[in-house]
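User: For my dataset I need records formatted as: sequence, then structure tokens, nothing else. Please produce one.
Assistant:
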Amino acid sequence: MSSLAYYLICLGAALLVIAMASALIARHLRRGQRRLQALALLDALARSTDWVARQGRAVCFQAATEQSDPSFDEIGRLQRQWFPDLAASVDELFAVHRRRAELLRMHERLRADDPEAWLDGAYDAAFMALWREHCAIVQTMERRLLSVATTAGTLRQHTSPA
């Protein structure tokens, strides 16, 4: 075997080893990034649940409510980019959010027109039903995300009050 052939074989083997090492490093970094994004999505879900709880207290005590959850854009973006397997759960969560937003708009109208009509209409029970549905969806998503994020270090427990 000539020295040129030997050199080309060694060069090819070295390039193959470098390509495999590069693929393993990229895979490891992608997994680490996915874990970080799982943590970010867990945080956004926790903020969303806190927001819903605040709206429930406002409804209960006849206070003004906010019309949109600021963390929903982040939830949608993270889900689309990093967790396409959660699309059905996020769609359900957004559907519950739309129904809750309509209930909150109705609350605001009634609060302005006739505050006692809200109390007579049992809308609090409707809000609580939407709250329970929200919590069930979020808890399902949290379980799936925690399985991705558990190797990212020590996590504080993200649980939704139900």
